[in-house]
Amino acid sequence: MTAQVVGLFDTPIVVDELPNAASFNAALKPLIQARRAERPGVSISNIGGWQSEHDVAEWAAEPVEYLLQHIFALANAYCVDIVSPGAPRHQWASDIWVNVSPPHASNQMHTHPGAYWSAIYYVDDGSDTGDGAIGGELVIEDPRMPMVLMTMPNLRLRSPNGSVHEPQLKMKVRSGRIIMFPSWLSHGVVPHQGARDRISIAINLLAVPLNST
Question: Is the overall model pTM greater than 0.85, yes or no?
Fold first, then answer.
């Protein structure tokens, strides 16, 4: 066949590893465990797990600042102010919280209205192998769901490179990994199947105009 297929509206999913993750995690994990022991947490998207209030920058300021600077750099690298590409007219504001997911805990599908980027950092993937291979995948959903499955649930589009389009992407996680994506993408977490707690930090980045203050 001579037909050409053009991919349209690419959606970036950024995956990175935090430098010096082992020492960073060793410093941050005790702070999270202490906070969990003294506060009941909140219930938002978490099912069976503990979610902190959005005040992590107050009780874990130094390690969180290190993580934030890395994520700010990622955000700057993967978007551009097309009117002023050399001097962006915005700065990033952040909203941060912690999820602690014991075995079988999960997070229901949700989005983050008002934010530009959302990121998840894994302090401890909860696996003994260190590769997060035991369940608990991050699920990112095609925003056209469920339209793409309404008529023929087993019929799939084929991408320009020949791969089969799936309506959900399941991403394995591991300690030290960052996964960042546009905040309008619906996402959740399937039940964690490890033997111990999984600990992650969730971050929303909001683009704030520099002249807004």
Answer: yes
